[in-house]
Amino acid sequence: MRRSCKILIKSIIIIILSFVVWSSLTYYLQLKQVLEWYSYELTITRGISIGFLNILFYGIVLVINIRSYRIIFFTLAFFGIVAWNISYLNENLDLGLLSNIMKDFLEILLFISTAVIAPGLVVFIAYYIKKFTSKFEGSFIGKYHLHEGFFGIILVGLAIFLFISRAIVIQFEVFLNELKIILAIIMILLYFVLFFGGFFIFRDIKDVIHLNFIKKMEKSHVSEEQHSRIFSSITQDNLSFFKVSKLPIFPIGIFITSMSLSMVIYGTKFIPRELLNSEQIINYGYLFSLLAGSIIGFDWVRIFKWFYPKYYGDIEQRIIELKKRF
After folding, report:
1. pTM for this entry
2. Out of 11, 46, 184, 229, which residue is the most buried by the measure of CB atoms under 10 Å away?
3. Distance between CA atoms of 46 and 188, rounded to whole angstroms?
4. In angstroms, rounded to a whole number, what is the distance separating the alpha carbons of residues 189 and 158?
């Protein structure tokens, strides 16, 4: 009975959010007929509509299971890519084949397919922790154990390379028009690399502070027992890794994730150019992506508990066992 009430309440919330999204998008399309594309009011309305879409998909994440959301994610991502390519070819080849209604439809489809990404990142993180953490903890390069923080630093180094590459590429007009797809790939890769770089560094922040990047281990430390349960490899040495932060800060990280991704993808279509120019918005978006990943990485235990309460019980049980032993 209690479970049914929770499902009913969540379903009502999703219905209300869907109505809000529909209303905001309808209002946006109406304004679009009478206002200029980069006008202040239209940009604000567009940004609010994108924000509501993000909230809707976060709500959907709470209602359905991760497997179902992954199906939604990849389906919408596919249609988003198709919509982007149709718009791209129609614009750059000057085909003029799309009616205004079709252009509006493709634009809304792009809004929807990009809004699904930020919640998808949170889902992926929870899935990654469940699926790969124990393997990562027990993975070795020869006799050496690779810490996640070191991997995060490598990703940040790669992000610096991608950032420089983007700065060079945008100097050539061909990459802003005919070869825009190459620039888009670099920008999306840069965002993800920064986000996950921050996530891995702050998930393993204690080892990063102590410069513990690679640790030599004896073979005796690797046993089948470590892999029998998802977090059976928790020891007294890495107990702090699983410590819950004092403040629940992951919602801030989730909000910044949605905000930063929209800034990178839409630029002055998301924030009025009266406030910031396109390059400033995009660069701030990248900075915020690193911050968002860092916050979520620091408070990863709560995210994992949110999606996998049963497996989180394994962590608590293991911690209790260790505290009794020591």
Report:
1. 0.84
2. 46
3. 21
4. 10
* Closest by Cα among 198, 294, 204 to 241: 204
Tokens of 188: 């999306």
Parts of the chain with a pLDDT under 50? 135-136, 138-139, 220-228
Q: How crowded is the C-beta side of 154, counted as CA atoms within 13 Å?
A: 8
Specify which residues 146 forms β-bridges with.
Answer: 214
Ramachandran angles phi, psi of 214, nearest 5°: -130, 130
8 Å CB contact between 125 and 296: yes
106-136 in b/e form (b: 16+ CB < 10 A) is: bbbbbbbbbbbbbbbbbbbbbbebbeebbeb
Give Dmax over CA atoms of the chain in angstroms: 73
Instruction: Identify the bridge partners of residue 145 per DSSP, sorted by sequence position.
Output: 140, 215
Provide Rg for the chain, Cα atoms.
22
Q: How confident is the model over 181-235, as pLDDT tens digits?
A: 889 899 999 999 999 999 999 988 887 887 877 776 655 444 444 444 555 566 6
- Token readout for 136 is 């990562």
- Identify the CA nearest to 119 among candidates 19, 217, 17: 17
Distances in Å between the alpha carbon of 129 and those of 61, 122, 229, 264, 312?
17, 11, 13, 26, 11
